[in-house]
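User: Before I run my own analysis I want an independent prediction to cross-check against. Here's the chain; please return only the structure tokens and, at the end, one sentence I can use as a sanity check.
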Amino acid sequence: MKGLILSGGKGTRLYPLTFTSAKQLIPVANKPILFRVIEAIRDAGITDIGIVVGDTAREIKAAVGKGNRWGIQVTYIHQEQPLGLAHAVKVSQDFLEDERFVMFLGDNVIQGGISGLVEQFAASDWNSQIVLTRVAHPEQYGVAELDEDGRIVRLVEKPKQPPSDLALVGIYMFDHHVHEAVDNITPSWRGELEITDAIQWLVEHDYQVYPYIHRGWWIDTGAPTAMLEANSLVLEELTPKIEGYVDRDSEVDSRVTIQKGAEIINSVIRGPTIIGERTRIVNSYVGPFTSIYHDVVIEDSEIERAIVLEHSLIRDIPARIQDSLIGRHVNLTRSPIKPKAYKLTLGDHSQVGIL
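Assistant: Structure tokens:
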């Protein structure tokens, strides 16, 4: 089997963080989401992986390389425009050939990996298997209707009256018949080739399409609130480890991970939290569900339930920073210049809450 990871797209819901960076490389619990997807596929025994890339191809290639660190072989497949998930399959046909494959969206985080899914599909003669999970508000998702034998009967996109509470997760298994399906569908009203239309084509032409019901949590990290939620869930699963330096005046609880080269000086750190390599926390409070990435400095400040990316500085902020995503090379300080005022330079789609 082969793996196909979709890492194109513009990540508009995460602007301005993704104006210049790939959304798949934003870290959750200090590991880029794309790396987590690669590891999930590798752990399922698949080592031949194609990554579909778009405008951020250079950054993704620099981060992933040839895949040596994971013991896999990576092939990059360029998609000139994000014209739908089925279009990504179409442009990947030379790589996929006639082999079975798993397709995984590069910005999804799922509990427990996909090894069970891959084993089940590999042992079957099914043509396709799609991952579903039960949700509270199925009208907000693509929803699957099943027959008495547990096969997929129909897929409905954001129905007003959902036929079930089973929503599609961004993980799919296919054999070579999906290429025939992709060649026989037409673009949707969005101008995209929809993977749901390709799956529906398989169903209508009597191919065997079965569900895999995922029992754990799953997060599509395409929006800031979802990114913070995924960060919180993954942090709770980490095995805490102290590899950096903690001085005797600091208080660090048992659910905190401190990575190599990090320094905690006269500060309080409450977990689950992770502090990245070469980061310095001085005279500060870092609260639960916070991920501070590498080479960050936080001084005389408080932060909780947040993600801070590399090379940022937070210094002398009088109010606690909470429920926040802070990008790379951000300088957040209190100005000594009087009169006191807020002086801001903000990119498009920025969100700022001021007390």
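Sanity check: The chain has eight helices and 27 strands.
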